[in-house]
Structures are given as structure tokens and as C-alpha cells.
Amino acid sequence: MLKMYDLAGADESNRFSPYCWRVRMALAHKSLECEFIPWRFTEKDRIAFSGQGQVPVLVDGETAVCDSWKIALYLESRYPQNPLFGCEAAKGQALFVKHWVERTLHPLLVRIAVRDVWERLHEKDKAYFRESREKRFGMPLEQVPKDREQLAAGFRTALDPVRATLEDQPYLCGNSPGFADYMVFSVLQWGRCASRFPLLEETDAIFAYRERMLDLFDGAARRVPAAA
Questions:
Q1: Is 47 helix (H, G, I), strand (E, B) or coil?
Q2: 142: which DSSP letter?
Q3: pLDDT band with cut points at 50, 70 and 90 for residue 1
Q4: Is 123 exposed, middle or buried (0-12, 13-18, 19+ CB in 10 A)?
């Protein structure tokens, strides 16, 4: 069976990493069974075999692959059933979505949710997380989301290209989801699992899109509890 090291909070059922969620959805898309191994920020020794210190790390027999994009490419090559991309053009378009998500959506959501993430971490991770994030933002963790309503409005506006696409088709990839959808969904799932803050309005087409994604694969993503 495949194994994947997956970021977890103090509660092992709380899995909120957007990069890990990309891989989780890709594995479900390909109907591949996988053991998801809970991992914390300060457990870098447990994944030292991968040659780096971040998750996701996918282990397939003697092969270890890290980085969500590289894992998707590996899965597409190693397990060609149920393609994530379909063709080279679709893979190139998905690469654009990857960079858009990471450079536009992630910076907004991390500021919204960073304090909430800290609250959900295992005690052994909290000092590391606070120190590293306060260094990144140049301010105490509590001050990062001080203008959260404004940040959330910017986040919703940034999703306008997704809304426009959903006016014509149910998923970014057309009538069925692909890896581009999983990269966008992973951000929405990050917000759902890490924070109680109402990121989306229920009347928003993005909210309905997230609900469809949560119901995929017999509700695999929905079974991971939202932040409580």
C-alpha cells in the first residue's frame, strides 16, 4: 500500500495542509489506497529519508517522492488510470493554476488562518510555528489577521476567475474534476479544516463548488472534520 506523511494538528484527525490535500484528492481520483501517516512540523527526522523536511511525502515501495506537484506527475506516470491531466496541454494549464493558487490565494488565506492554525497544533509544534511565522510576517502572530474581514473580501474577489468558469461548467476541468480543481479545492479545504472563520458565503458559487468537491469519492474530504 502507498503511504503518505500528512500534516496533522494536535488532534490527528485535523488535517489541514493544502499541499497534502492536493495529493489526497489525486489518490482518490485514481482509486489508489493509501495510508495517511500523521506528521508534525517538528518531526523532520521522520521524513529525513526523503532528503528534505516538508510534507507531503509519498512512499511507494522503495520510492519516496516529495512536493505535491512532483507527486502528481509521479502518480500520473506510475498509475495512468483515471488521468489527472488528460493531455500535455491540460498539464500545462494545471501548472498555471498551481502558480496562481500559490501566489494569489495562499498569501491571503495564510494571513486569515495563521492564528487559528497555531491554536490547533500539537504543543511540541507551537513554539516552532510561532517563531517561524512571526519572523515571516514581522509581527506577533495575533496581529497578522487583525484586518481579517478585509483579507477575506480580497480572497473572495481573487476567486472571480473560478466563479466565471463555473458559470459554464461544473468544474475547472470541465464536466469532471482534475488536478487543477484539486489545487483550488485544497485551499478551500485548508480554510475549512483550520479555521472557524466564515471564509465563503453560502450563496457564493464557490461555496457550492466546494460542496461538490467535498462530496466526491463518497465524501472522502467531507469525512475529515471541519474546524470546531
A1: helix
A2: G
A3: confident
A4: exposed
pLDDT tens track for 66-108: 999 999 999 999 999 999 998 999 999 999 999 999 999 999 9
Q: Residue 96 corresponds to which amino acid?
A: F
Place of cell 467535498: 214
What is the amino acid identity at position 159?
L
Whether the Cβ atoms of residue 46 and residue 39 lie closer than 8 Å to each other: yes
Say which DSSP state 101 is in.
Answer: I
SS3 165: helix
State how far Cα 11 lies from the chain centre: 18
Q: In the structure grid, which three cell numbers stand for residue 155, read together? A: 480572497
Distance in angstroms (rounded) separating the CA atoms of residues 93 and 88: 9
Separation CA 176–CA 97 (nearest Å): 17
Provide the b/e sequence for 153-169 (b: ≥16 CB within 10 Å): ebbbebbeebeebbeee
The CA distances from residue 178 to 49, 82, 159, 184, in Å, are: 30, 9, 18, 10
pLDDT given at position 175: 97
Nearest to 190 by CA among 9, 6, 11, 18: 18
CA 40 to chain centre: 16
Give 135's contacts (C-beta < 8 A, 6+ positions apart).
none
By residue count, the chain amounts to: 228
pTM: 0.97
Is the distance from CB of 25 to CB of 188 less than 8 angstroms?
A: no
